[in-house]
Amino acid sequence: MYPQRVADPTALEGRDFIGLIDVNSFYVSAERVFDPKLRDRPVVVLSNNDGCCVALSREAKALGIPMGEPWFKLAASAERLNLVAKSSNYELYGQMSDRFISVLQDCAPEVAQYSIDEAFVKVRGTMSELLSWAKMVKDRLWKHLGLPVCVGIGRTKVLAKLSNRAAKKLDHLGGVCVWESVPERHREQLLSTLPSMRCGGSPAAWPSGSTQWASRRSNSSGMLTR
Ligand SMILES: [Mg+2]
User: In this predicted model, what pLDDT tens digit does every residue of 176-198 receive, in sequence order?
Assistant: First the structure.
């Protein structure tokens, strides 16, 4: 447990950061947008031909169901577990992904999509501005699309990814985390998870022409972004 603060917030004034926005259990969350009955219960999304689990809700993970579990092993106990399985619908996920990016583009001038449900953005501001911006993005994606996300912010893509991981794992953070607010002892713990993470560090992931500061204010948050 740790608060979202640093010893000297002014030390972050005007510094450049990268934010990573990642939709929680994306396929399941996309299904829930159009079927509210799926909320607050264990849900799995199945691969082509309903072979195995390719996405699990938090409730399904809590049941101990592993990613990739064949559905035939779960089907018999589904009713007892209140478990719902959905066939995958990649057209739907693609459309939700487009909307996700579109909302992000209203929140930051530079957005680099990293995967179907993840995007990096460049942000700038004090600690309190960064946290306000992160909460604004999270709230907006929930309000406009019904998608739950976590927002991690750090000075590099890797640190943004680690912050996102912290935001996802630690409920008291409310789904947002800035790396500089994480105490040293917890940073070590998070860094030890690196080998199991996917994270692109290539500058080529940024859209062309994105290397220059645009130095303008976001309409919605008042925080300097780029
Ligand atoms: Mg995700």
Answer: 999 988 888 888 887 887 665 55
CB count within 10 Å of CB 188 equals 10
CA of 24 to the centre of ligand 1 (A): 5
Ligand 1 centroid to 148 CA: how many Å?
9
pLDDT at 208: 42
3 state DSSP class of 17:
strand
How many A from CA of 223 to the centre of ligand 1?
Answer: 25
pTM of the model: 0.79
Pair 193, 186: CB distance under 8 Å: no
**What residues are annotated to the active site?**
118
Q: What is the Cα–Cα distance from 98 to 123, expressed in whole angstroms?
A: 21
Q: Provide DSSP, 151-203.
A: EEEESSHHHHHHHHHHHHH-GGGTTEEEGGGS-HHHHHHHHTTGGG------G
